[in-house]
Design goal:
Strand order of the largest sheet: 12-19-16-17-14-13-20
Strand content: 15-25%
Number of helices: 6
Radius of gyration: 21 Å
Helix content: 10-25%
């Protein structure tokens, strides 16, 4: 009833949508960097949105793993050239793995994302910590032993499929007939400029506000799950006065004294004292999560109302997709009966 890690990849960890409700105690939410891809993987694996199970987040260089029991899995996000016993695996499609089969993932193809997500039907058997299965590696909290996966790890599956080949063949036939229509709002169409809402704009000079919206930044090599450091022409404040620390969230753009912005990511600190020039709209967080150091990005200012409308459109698309996958869940229910 386990998945064996044969090769761990560059950085592979279990992540769900985050550990919320504890930031006032200094506990970072952590969670999937590309929540859109994480949610897609679970819906397509026949899991319900209410469960918020962990998926395996794989970064740049994918792992290799062997299924000890039959399982249904889905891959989303970056293209890591996945194969199952040497046969190509389609992304965004539920795939059956028989006992003993090996799933191998390679390096991300340039321009095709940085993070991929593997979800299995029923989820991985890991104990929730503070209501979440997410791994916060900096403090060794949650996930699989609070760390990234390494060679030899064995992760149990909550709901492996029956070993009966007749049952599996019948399920495979239903999967082959399954038609999946992905709403456009859930696709990751590359954007040169991420949509942001201005925050403490009054702390910055007019020239810096124009520069923030017009230049392209390079993502620094000193970028990771806590934050993406950007390199460009420095932004200047109107005053060097110290600021009180304030809560932060995923996508908060801070500007330290050197004038180079930092976009806070999933493992962000809970509060910060740097000036906040803007907040990335939630629908564009996946855009930066799927970029790697050396790539560039810019920013486009939108209103709060526009950002909310984009988020609502995405949620409506998730609802439609979830409803359209009822036949998949019923097929799995019959298989597990």
């Amino acid at each position: 009833m386990t998945v064996h890690i044969l090769k761990p990849g560059m950085l592979s960890s279990l992540q769900d949508r985050g550990r919320y409700g504890h930031q006032h105690l200094g506990v970072s939410p952590s969670g999937a960097m590309d929540e859109r891809a994480h949610r897609l993987a679970h819906l397509l694996a026949g899991n319900t949105p209410e469960q918020d199970l962990a998926s395996l987040e794989m970064t740049v260089q994918g792992p290799s793993l062997r299924f000890d029991e039959p399982a249904l899995f889905v891959l989303t996000g970056a293209d890591l050239d996945a194969t199952l016993d040497g046969q190509p695996v389609a992304a965004l499609r539920p795939t059956l793995a028989r006992a003993g089969q090996t799933l191998s993932l390679q390096a991300a193809k340039p321009g095709h994302g940085a993070r991929a997500y593997l979800a299995v039907h029923g989820g991985f058997q890991v104990e929730p910590i503070l209501g979440s299965q997410s791994t916060h590696m900096r403090v060794g909290l949650g996930g699989f032993e609070g760390r990234a996966l390494k060679k030899g790890d064995q992760i149990a599956l909550v709901r492996p499929l029956p070993k009966d080949e007749t049952v599996l063949s019948r399920l495979q036939a239903e999967l082959d007939e399954l038609r999946i229509y992905l709403p456009a709002a859930l696709a990751l169409s590359p954007r040169e400029r991420l949509r942001v809402i201005l925050d403490q704009a009054d702390l910055f000079t007019d020239e810096s506000l124009v520069l923030f919206q017009s230049q392209h930044y390079r993502i620094s090599p000193a970028s990771e799950r806590m934050g993406y450091r950007l390199e460009g022409q420095p932004l200047r404040r109107t005053s060097s006065e110290e600021l009180l620390s304030a809560p932060t969230c995923f996508g908060t753009i801070q500007v330290p004294n050197d004038g180079q912005p930092i976009v806070l990511m999933a493992d962000r600190q809970t509060t910060g004292g740097y000036a906040r020039i803007a907040q990335v709209a939630s629908v564009d967080l996946a855009q930066i999560a799927q970029r790697v150091p050396g790539q560039s990005l810019g920013f486009e200012v939108v209103t709060v109302e526009q950002a909310q409308a984009l988020a609502a459109r995405q949620e409506q698309a998730f609802t439609r997709l979830n409803e359209s996958l009822e036949s998949l869940r019923q097929a799995l229910k019959r298989c597990l009966a």
